[in-house]
Design a protein that fits this description.
It contains 14 helices and eight strands. The protein is of the alpha/beta class. It has two domains: 34 residues, no CATH class; 250 residues, 2-enoyl-CoA Hydratase, Chain A, domain 1, CATH 3.90.226. Strands 1, 2, 3, 4, 5, 6, 7 and 8 form an eight-stranded mixed beta sheet that branches. Strand 5, helix 9 and strand 6 form a beta-alpha-beta unit. The longest helix has 19 residues. The chain is globular, with a radius of gyration of 19 Å. Keywords: ATP-binding, Coiled coil, Cytoplasm, Fatty acid biosynthesis, Fatty acid metabolism, Lipid biosynthesis, Lipid metabolism, Nucleotide-binding, Transferase. Belongs to the AccA family. It comes from Anaerosphaera aminiphila DSM 21120. Pathway: Lipid metabolism; malonyl-CoA biosynthesis; malonyl-CoA from acetyl-CoA: step 1/1.
């Protein structure tokens, strides 16, 4: 994994010099020309990659966060609320992994519980009531598979969220910002327009899980990455995603600013396009999109 070595090398360097900035630019330009599937997976999981909260704070203006599912508890793996995208009021939803040990533990490393998906349903119904578009930021290795989650109806929570999103009478755009794995990601990916950040991945499960199930050997994850066709380029070709937002390689969190700007521009453009489509036609297109995927 050459890109990982490049990033590790750049992190060790003294960062406050012009020499470093020129060196970094040269190394990243060179690395991007020879990027592999394994590099894409590394980037999707990279520790300094922005999380859902970073995207929300850099794209949504004046965000107001809501909490709880009104049935059991507040799941910190799911963040959501209302805010502005330019002059458009929107509802935003995100799967948050957290940064650092304390945040990651609180967010259960981005693995939502049933109450998280029920929070999604609550805010989605509210968005429909007030005719607000929904923007989802997806970054998860999957829903939490623990006993307590199953006892509280994890499968039902995911299935009913998918069902709700299919028939929701408002515009929905989903963005895969890092990892998008399993039904835990799909629940927030049923939408009218699916965007993938260039270095994100989207799949039925993790490469390690795929290798463990198919070949009984998680060490064959690199081989699984090639077989699974989980990169943005592959999924655009298969018409699973509708658009790729180009990324500059970002070693540090602050290097991501231009990528936020590109995504924000895309979101505004697509909300305008979706806003011109009659609701009956929008719902027909949304359902047809997923039926066609299954058929193909």
């Amino acid at each position: 994994m050459k890109l990982k070595l490049v990033f590790e090398d750049l992190i060790k360097e003294e960062k406050n010099s012009e020499e470093y900035r020129n060196y970094k630019k040269l190394k990243l330009e060179e690395a991007k020309k020879n990027i592999t599937v394994e590099d894409r997976v590394f980037l999707a999981r990279y520790k300094n990659r922005p999380k859902a909260m970073d995207f929300i704070k850099n794209i949504i203006e004046s965000p107001l966060f809501f909490h709880g599912d009104r049935k059991y508890a507040d799941d910190k793996a799911i963040v959501g609320g209302v805010g502005m995208l330019g002059d458009i009021p929107v509802t935003f939803l995100g799967i948050e992994k957290g940064r650092g040990l304390e945040e990651s533990l609180a967010a259960n490393f981005g693995m939502p519980h049933p109450e998280g998906y029920r929070k999604v349903q609550r805010l989605a119904r509210q968005a429909e009531k007030f005719n607000r578009p929904i923007i989802c930021f997806v970054d998860t290795q999957g829903a939490y598979p623990g006993v307590e989650a199953e006892e509280r109806g994890q499968a039902e929570a995911i299935a009913s969220t998918i069902y709700e999103m299919c028939g929701l009478k408002t515009n929905i755009i989903s963005v895969i910002i890092g990892e998008g794995s399993s039904g835990g990601a799909l629940a927030l990916s049923v939408c009218d327009h699916l965007i993938m950040m260039e270095n994100s991945i989207y799949s039925i499960l993790s490469p390690e899980g795929f290798a463990s199930i198919l070949w009984k050997d998680s060490l064959r994850a690199s081989e699984a990455m090639e077989v699974m066709k989980l990169t943005s380029e592959d999924l655009l070709k298969f018409k699973v995603c509708d658009e790729i937002v180009e990324e500059d390689l970002a070693v540090e969190l602050e290097d991501f600013e231009e990528n936020y700007n590109r995504l924000k521009k895309s979101l505004k453009k697509n909300l305008e396009i979706l806003g011109d489509i009659p609701m009956d036609k929008l719902l027909q297109n949304r359902k047809g999109k997923y039926r066609n995927l299954a058929w193909d």
